[in-house]
Design brief:
The protein is of the alpha+beta class. Helices cover 33% and strands 23% of the residues. A hairpin with a 2-residue loop joins strand 4 and strand 5. The protein binds FE2/S2 (inorganic) cluster (FES) and fe (ii) ion.
């Protein structure tokens, strides 16, 4: 497969979104090697708590063991391969027990018992010291500020080196808590997108599309917001969450993207999230008490709307949202949409996160639904013979590199996609 002929600096061939062989290579060369987000440690607070999760093509289970450590194991019985956890999440008690022949495993994945073991397996290679008798662990597990990641590759950059500048996603979310940490809201939306995973990643920092795709919602929300302000003097923040989508192209051009190595990126802030209402003032006072005025100001003035951890995560840290992709096939992608509470922050501040979750990120909103429709139609177009190339020419030639960061003079530049494909090629062409 000659990948060089499919990816050019300003355009890519449609096959990279549709081809089954390329998808397999993305699994083996990208998703099954990089650090993949498994979940937040508060999803599994007690020993035996588990969450199943997909890393590349591999069904895995994240579990808290009896010593409090979080393990990530293949969800597969070493006897004859049956999946051990059939539910998405739960508590497995003191061990995993296979539903087929009752082999059991400690919470760290090591073998506990085999029925009839001593007699039936005497003289065979199947015994407790044989690693083939345990649930296979992920090669590496690490966490950053409570966010747990695993890599199926024994070698490669550390989690910190992989995240690089994108680490700020987790710092920004946690630093907004007076206690420096967050707790997951233990339900998420799970949506199957009928499109290649790259559509979502490209869309997240595509600052031109909101005022087109989300125009109907943005314009309607702007009208209502105006009327509420006229009648009541001010409008709740949730109107603003929708009305900002109606910003003009010129306004979007002022919203910079920062593009980093490994394909990560940041869309800078464009929403006013610091209204001067009593709730916000009370919350900011808590932060000042915890961190002092200078650090509070530093934390609250980071210019972030989304942080992308390429190739699968979009974190909206100022509103405690996290969306994670689990690719299922060239044209099918599972997305998980989570949100978090800031530990120690007032309930009213959590409500904001919930509004945004329900108004913008839920698949039932007019925002996410309009994006989903674009990506499905995009996939249909790329599967057709109507043309071979996907264009990333918008503001091509204006990209500026300063050290590791690539920016463009215009916020709506497709420098985002160009940077993502740089990373993609690096991953895909290595051994
Ligand atoms: S397949 Fe699991 S115990 Fe037999
Ligand atoms: Fe969108």
């Amino acid at each position: 497969m000659d990948l060089q002929t499919l990816v050019e600096p300003d355009r890519v061939h449609r096959r990279v979104y549709t081809d089954a062989e390329i998808f397999e290579r993305e699994m083996t060369h990208i998703f099954e090697r990089v650090w993949v987000y498994c979940g937040h440690e508060t999803q599994v607070p007690n020993p035996g708590d588990y969450y199943t999760v997909r890393i590349g093509r591999q069904p895995m289970v994240m579990v808290r063991d009896r010593d409090g450590e979080i393990r990530v194991l293949h969800n597969r019985c070493p006897h004859r391969g049956v999946q051990l956890c059939g539910n998405t999440h739960g508590n497995t008690g003191r061990s995993f027990v296979c539903s087929y022949h009752a082999w059991s495993f400690h919470l760290d994945g090591s073998l506990k018992t085999i029925p009839l073991g001593a007699e039936a397996y005497r003289g065979t290679r199947m015994n407790k010291s044989n690693p083939d008798c345990r649930m296979k662990p992920a090669a590496r597990v690490a966490s950053y500020r409570g966010f747990v990641f695993a890599s199926l590759a024994a070698d490669g950059p550390s989690l910190g080196d992989f995240l690089g500048e994108a680490k700020v996603a987790f710092d920004d979310m946690c630093d907004r808590s007076p206690e420096g940490k967050v707790t997951v809201v233990p339900v998420c939306h799970r949506v199957i997108q009928h499109s290649n995973w790259k559509f979502f990643m490209e869309n997240q920092l595509d600052a031109l599309h909101p005022s087109v795709t989300h125009q109907s919602t943005g314009v309607a929300a702007t009208r209502v917001e105006k009327r509420v302000i006229e009648e009541q003097g001010s409008a709740p923040l949730y109107y603003h969450m929708l009305s900002t989508f109606a910003s003009s192209f010129e306004q979007w051009d002022q919203v910079q993207t920062l593009n980093f190595p490994h394909g990560h990126g940041i869309l800078k802030a464009y929403m006013g999230l610091r209204p001067q209402d009593p709730d916000t003032r009370a919350y900011e006072a808590l932060l000042v008490k915890a961190y002092g005025r200078k650090r509070t100001e530093e934390y609250l003035s980071r210019s972030i709307h989304h942080v992308l951890v390429y190739p699968y995560l979009s974190v909206q840290s100022p509103l405690q949202q996290l969306r994670c992709l689990r690719p299922l096939g060239p044209d099918r992608t599972l997305s998980e949409i989570w949100h978090f509470r800031l530990d120690g922050a007032p309930e009213a501040i959590y409500r904001r996160s919930l509004w945004y979750y329900n108004l913008v990120n839920s698949p039932a909103t007019m925002i996410n639904a309009d994006d989903l429709e674009n990506w499905t139609k995009g996939q249909w177009g790329l599967e057709s013979d109507g043309g071979d190339w996907v264009s990333f020419h918008r503001h091509f030639g204006t990209d500026r590199r300063e050290g590791d960061i690539v920016t463009s003079t215009k916020g709506t530049s497709e420098v985002v996609m160009r940077n993502q494909f740089d990373a993609w090629m690096q991953y895909m062409t290595r051994d």
